[in-house]
Structures are given as structure tokens and as C-alpha cells.
UniProtKB/TrEMBL annotation:
A UniProt-annotated Pfam family: RVT_1
Name assigned to this protein: Reverse transcriptase (RNA-dependent DNA polymerase)
Keyword Transferase in annotation: yes
Family annotation (InterPro entries): DNA/RNA_pol_sf (IPR043502), RT_dom (IPR000477)
Keyword field: Nucleotidyltransferase, RNA-directed DNA polymerase, Transferase
Gene Ontology terms, MF aspect: RNA-directed DNA polymerase activity
Residues of the Reverse transcriptase domain: 1-302
Length: 392
């Protein structure tokens, strides 16, 4: 519990809600404690020791208690969808970290190699590079693709089914009690915005991923009467609830997707949207032109010979870069919030074939000013914090 608390609060010490939580284990008021922690976060450590012991005792005595999750609807900037996000209290967030850390051995064993999103080191760039490698090194095996996504994945996950999987593979009553208490506090299924939920979602979908990797075969009868199993697909990749299958024959990939849809429905109780797409993978014909469809996934459009940034992200990023240049020319400085946005968007172009765009808009030159702006602000912040600590 102490390690989970330190990990969870590592970037939350200056929040007032952290002081409110620790104040329940102190004689000081939340406001006084908040002021003290801002001066020197080391004063929180004795209270964290007491809090972690109390929370561990709550698990052992089966008396876990925390406030209800608050829900709010937010617009997802990348997809344009409105999502209901659960905002947990600090105490529940700490329990989330404790549960994930305890389940990590199971997650590492069960979550598949090409299950991306929410896993450190396996994000959008990891998935993009994997797809690029497959379609460029093995064009004959990646002629056809099928792409679909799970309908309302998080809220549709059956908690009873999830717990039955965990009970078979986890033999620790304290841990099972902790996980069950946390997930039963959610409104429906798993909660978007929860640290534990993103790991449990990947774990739950891992059963479908391994089915796609190991069981998508067709059986052919040979002339001598023997049966031969042939794999229907070449590769599968899951980006959380987005699914991509690649293969060499249209009929095989279609059959593989139909088998996977059936598995999701019968074994996991989830529905892949009926508008899943079967397409011929982009290729360059004899006329030198592109034919077929690219793979539009994880914010990138992956072609046989190059990778582009998705149109919506491209337009939003270009607007931010042009605004930054305008501020720089007019005021000789960039607003800090905009500087952070530019750094964030630069990652998309750095990891795609956008050399012409970077050159046309002078993005690399702009990033020097942007990074300097962020660096200077960070130095001022650190200097101020050091001065406050010395004064205290």
C-alpha cells in the first residue's frame, strides 16, 4: 500500500484533494497541510505511512470505504465522441494503483504482444511501427484487412464474467476483495478514467486476442484423407477496443472476422459493431498509383510506402503551429499553454512521413523556441520552489 500510495501521489502532492485525504490522518487542517506540502512535500511522508497502514487494515478487515465516483461528460478531441468520464477520489485512486501493482504479474502474462494502448511502451507509435513492418516487409501476406471496434467497450464489460476469470487465475482473497470492491463502485461495466479499468479492459480483451492468434484456422481435407489446418490471418492487432486483422485472401480474412465476432458475443458478451470493414490493403499498381485503402488507426493513416497523420489531427496541429508563429512574430514570445500543445502535436509529425510539412511551416525551427519557452518556465518554477523551501 505504501508503494502504491507513493506512485499514485508522485504528481499529485500540490493538489488540495491530496491534503484533504492526508488531513484525515493528522491534527492539522487540510488548508494548513496543503500549505506545508507546497513548501516541502517531505512533510507528507509520515502521514502517508499512517494512511497506508490504515488502508491495508481496511482490506484485511473487509471494510474498504471511499466516496462515490463523480461522472462528467467530456468531448474526446481526437474521435469527436462524447464520453462519460468517472472522477475518483484520491483514496480510490491509491487503491487502483495497489490493485494494478498486485495484478501486474497476471497482466504481463496474459495481455498480448500486440495489444496496444494504456500499457507503458506500447502506445500508438508502438502499434503504428508494428503495422508498418507487416505491410512493408510482407506485402503478399497483408493484401487484405478487416477493421472493427467493440460497441461501448468499457460500460459493456460484464463484471460477473470478469470476476470469474480473475477468480480462476488469482488465488489471493484480499486482492480479489479489493478488485471486486473497486469495480462494483462503477456505474456500469468498467469506468472510463480509472487507472485500474484500463488494465482490466486489456486483460478481458486478451482472451479474444489469444483466440485470434491461436484459433483462427480453416481445416482442409487432403487427397490422402488427412486434414490440414491453415491459418486464416497473418497478424492481429488490438488498440484497446479497435481490432485489425491482416491476411492474404479476402475470403479467409472475412471468415476470421466472423469467427472473432462470434467469440466476442458468446465468450465475452461483447458486440463488435456490425459495420466492421473488410478492405483491400493499399498497394501501388502498375500505373504507379495507389489502389485500395490505407489502415486508418491510432491517429495515423498507414499506406504501403508511407504514413500520414489523420486529417483532423493534422488540421488542429497546423492551426496551433501557425498561431505559435504569429505570437512569436508579434509579441516575441509564446503563451505557455500553446507551447505545451505544440510539443504534444509535434510527436505525431515526428513519427510520420511529414518532412514536406515540417519544412514548409518551419516546424523544427519553431520547436526550438517552444522548447526554450517551456524550459525557461520550468527553471523559474524550480527556482521559486527552492526559494520557498529555503525560507521554510
Amino acid at each position: 500500500m505504501r508503494a502504491a500510495m507513493a506512485e499514485c501521489l508522485s504528481d499529485k502532492y500540490e493538489r488540495f484533494e491530496t491534503a484533504e485525504f492526508l488531513a484525515t490522518f493528522s491534527d492539522s487542517t487540510a488548508r494548513q497541510l496543503h500549505r506545508n506540502i507546497k513548501h516541502d512535500k517531505r512533510c507528507a511522508e509520515p502521514l502517508m505511512d499512517i494512511a497506508s497502514e490504515a488502508m491495508a487494515l481496511e482490506i484485511m478487515e473487509r471494510k474498504i470505504d471511499f466516496p462515490e465516483i463523480k461522472y462528467s461528460k467530456r468531448l474526446d478531441g481526437n474521435s469527436g465522441k462524447i464520453r462519460e468520464i468517472g472522477v475518483e477520489c484520491i483514496k480510490q485512486q491509491i487503491y487502483d494503483y495497489a490493485a494494478v501493482n498486485a495484478l501486474m504479474e497476471l497482466f504481463e502474462r496474459k495481455i498480448g504482444k500486440y495489444q496496444c494502448a494504456s500499457i507503458p511502451g506500447r502506445g500508438q507509435v508502438y502499434g503504428k511501427k508494428a503495422i508498418e513492418k507487416w505491410v512493408r516487409k510482407n506485402p503478399d501476406k497483408t493484401r487484405v484487412g478487416a477493421k472493427g471496434d467493440v460497441h461501448h467497450c468499457y460500460p459493456s464489460i460484464d463484471i460477473e464474467r470478469l470476476m470469474s476469470f480473475l477468480r480462476k487465475q488469482v488465488k489471493n482473497d484480499d486482492l480479489l476483495y479489493l478488485v471486486e470492491t473497486l469495480i462494483r463502485s462503477y456505474k456500469q461495466g468498467l469506468s472510463i478514467g480509472s487507472y485500474l479499468s484500463q488494465w482490466l479492459c486489456n486483460y478481458f480483451l486478451s482472451f479474444a486476442y489469444h483466440y485470434a492468434e491461436q484459433n483462427l484456422y480453416k481445416v482442409r481435407k487432403q487427397r490422402d484423407g488427412t486434414k490440414k489446418r491453415t491459418r486464416l490471418i497473418y497478424k492481429a492487432l488490438f488498440y484497446m477496443d479497435d481490432i485489425l486483422l491482416l491476411g492474404s485472401r479476402k475470403a479467409d480474412v472475412r471468415k476470421a472476422m466472423e469467427m472473432l465476432v462470434k467469440f466476442f458475443q458468446e465468450e465475452l458478451g461483447l458486440t463488435i459493431k456490425p459495420n466492421w470493414k473488410l478492405f483491400q490493403m493499399d498497394h501501388i499498381g502498375r500505373d504507379g498509383k495507389h489502389h485500395g485503402d490505407c489502415i486508418d488507426m491510432m491517429g495515423y493513416k498507414i499506406y504501403r510506402d508511407h504514413t500520414e497523420v489523420r486529417r483532423k489531427i493534422f488540421l488542429t496541429a497546423r492551426r496551433a503551429f501557425m498561431r505559435a508563429w504569429k505570437q512569436l512574430r508579434k509579441y516575441k514570445r509564446i503563451v505557455l499553454k500553446l507551447a505545451y500543445r505544440c510539443i504534444s502535436y509535434f510527436g505525431w509529425f515526428k513519427n510520420s512521413d511529414s518532412t514536406n510539412f515540417l519544412k514548409k511551416y518551419g516546424i523544427e525551427q519553431l520547436m526550438k523556441y517552444v522548447k526554450r519557452r517551456v524550459s525557461n518556465e520550468s527553471k523559474i518554477h524550480n527556482r521559486t520552489a527552492s526559494g520557498q523551501l529555503a525560507a521554510a
